[in-house]
Known about the structure:
Chain A is of the alpha+beta class and 170 residues long. Chain A has helices spanning 34-46, 52-59, 85-91, 93-99, 110-126; strands spanning 21-27, 66-70, 79-82, 130-138, 140-154, 157-169. Chain A is built from five helices and six strands, in the order βααββαααβββ. At the A-B interface, α2, α4 and α5 of A face α10, α24 and α26 of B.
Amino acid sequence: MTVLSFPTTDRGAQRPAIRPETTILRLTLAEAADWQQTIMAECRRQRVLTPSLPAYLKREGLMDRCTFLSSTGPGEPLCFRHLGIPTLSVLGRAWGRSVLNQPDEMDPHVEFAHSVGAQYAETIGAGEAIFNRVTVSGVGRPFVYTHALYGWEVRGRRAVLSAVDLQTLH
Amino acid sequence: MQSETENTASTAERKPLPLRDALLAGTAVTPPHPDAEILELARQRRAVIDAMDVGVEDDEVDRLEKEWLRLDRRIMDIEPKTGAGLAAQLAVVWRGLDPADGYEDGPAPKSREERQWLWKAKENAAKLDDDSATLDAFREFLLAQCGWVPAWSDEVSGAYSDHCDALAMEVMAKEPTTAAGFAAQFYTWLHLQHGAPSEDDLLADYSPSYKPEHAHFAHNQAERMIVERAFRMTEAIRGEERFRSYLRQMDGAALGRMLDATADATKLPAEPERQYSFPDWMMELVAEADAAIMAEIAASKTRNPDKWAEQDRQITDVWCRIPEERKEAEIRWLEFGVAEDRFHRMAMTFAGSIGRGDQYRRDLYRMADKGGDADLLDLGRLHEDAVRDADAVHAIARPEAEAERLNDRISSLKDRIFATEATTLAGLAVQLAALWDLQGPTLEEENGPLEDSDIGLKAVWNIWQTARKLSGQPADIRPIVRGDDDISPENRADLQAISAIYDQLDAVGKASVVAVARATIHIQQAVSIAQAIGAEFPEALAGVAKMMRADAALLEAAANDQRQDADAFADTVMAFEAEAPATLALPLEPTGRMIDAGAGAAGITPEQFQAAYAAAVEALKLERAA
């Protein structure tokens, strides 16, 4: 299922020369999948970030579809805390293990991380749900996914929940 | 030279602690001037010159001239940071150039043009620092920001935001004439651009809170660099003691706002027994206040030993009469009181001046665990007396005018009682007593409702009596349900609910503010139930309920804020983290090798294994969800 190869052991391997390209298209939440809308509605309802959110996601069996990032303080980077299955499907478990509790900018796919990072910053800043279709090429096999994002900021600490729906894997 | 400079700045010429002045006088003080050293030397120089002008003995003249020269050299040695410092140096140059024309108060009318220019330059230098219009506006704006509490409520927070923005626009409207003024405007502009800094930022550091989220946002980095440089340009705003110097120059109302913001930030202990704590910097202030007051007491003792001896004698006298078992508590109170009392009174006044007095008081009572509502209890006593007087007047049929006067007094006391926010159960009991009186009990009902009294009347009586009981006063709680015969089944459920509320009130226990909050919520429930069953409650009860709701909402918000602040965020992150390894370890679909190995080991076909695996995954999901 992993679409990326990590040429760490294969010294002969060369990274492909293709530059990763990320296209992010802003859509309305109405276009999101039902379960993405459900999660965003729950985030809105709860408003503040408390353990009742992960509890809710577990109860509804939606935890697997969500990626969660948080920072430990103002100016600190967002770090992956939980990776959803869709994210892992695209980027692989090995990637998952390597980035867990690492800043999102440490993601080896820097370009990709930055484009998505800007979306995270926006949802945290706005404190409101946003929904995008993301088309990525140049990171492994090209793929398209949608993510519904909800962000929080509590005294400088930031967090983002990303409900990812993988649409195509070319 | 370096060590001499430090020494000068730190000891001999240092003025008394500004904070001490502020505490003792309650007035505004200024922060240390960036050119304090030059200005102090200039003052000494001026004193030497004045002494020489008066005329002294020859050998004294010698000594003074040497001193003058020494001071001139030291003044010229220091690099001035402000116009005032530069002006002091120009004054040295002024006098040095041409002693014959050297009047300290200006050039002689016929002096050369260059002399006139030099004087003018000196005067202009002194004026350079004056950007007080911009900085004063900026100070107001910063202080308003300190008062901003994110978790207060959307409505209040929104209004406060608007208030901050209005003050920000005041700053932007000024024409800055100094780097400090410019920095202030830049900071303010950043506020308008990026929103208010977080409270942590305000307390720790006045730098803007926004941080470039991503290194590639060059304009964010640039903004930050510019504002930091701008701040660095001015010692008045930037520096090690920046925050404290702001605190020191604040007037009373401003300090109140600071206290208030802090009180909000640290509002409600999650559990009643949990220690209420001010942040460290607050404790430092208290400690400093303590030292300052102690110093004042010592000075006063030296000035007026007789008075103090007499006081000592009286205190000893009183002390001997206090029962042994109470002495320890008294000592503790005295230790706390010396530092706290003045500080508290000051803070109280300030908090009151911004309309948050009750909140501050509530916080303090929570901290000190002492009963509040003194005002309300006083009003209660006055109300009781007035009611008694009025009854007596009616009984002996005094003139109409007298009865009317007393009735007016009673209603005005009632208004004040309902307008004061109760913070203890005793205070609440006073309000409920007034409410009981408003219910208009008949003569037979005056000492409590009868079996067949109106349900609303019974409810108010019992709520009142419960509040009395919980605040340690004698109480008389009546059975609320008459008997099963007269009660319809649906009403019985409601009445049982009311009874349950009394039980809960009972269980709340000690008269802590948290308990009051809970009690108010319960009483509010009682009110709504009574309304639901059609009992007629007067408007006053609705008013009390509204106030209680506000109180309860406030305390609840505070509790939420506390929870949010302390744990919720970290707890949530942990909850997500706890899930991460599981998600990582579980492939939703088996890999080819897994299928082969699994099917081979179990002696089944790959399809059967895949079906089995899918079932296992579903089961695991259910298990985790449980």
